[in-house]
Fold this protein.
Amino acid sequence: MTINIQYVHMATSEAMNDYVTEKLSVLAKKYEWIINAEVHFEVENNAKTNGKICKIELSAPGPRIFAMSDENNYEDAVKNTIKDLEKQLKKRKETFSTH
């Protein structure tokens, strides 16, 4: 699986790169048919949001899988986003096994 990480309106972070890569590699071992992952980190200074946004889009057979999370810190945003992706991947895997 290829992982592309982008930082929008913020400095890059090696620690976040390692953290996201580690979490996504666990998903890749479970679901070996994942092809690619696009990760976007954003900062949004808005009173209505927490401000730390993580968006992850996975390329896999079938439609793309996307999840997004807005939290107070990036680690929580990554955890919640990956949790949402895993739910979607489980559903996708079930459709594979029925055919």
Observations:
- Residues 67 and 83 are 9 Å apart (CA to CA).
- The chain is about 40% helix and 30% strand.
- The chain has one domain: 2-98.
- The mean pLDDT is 91.
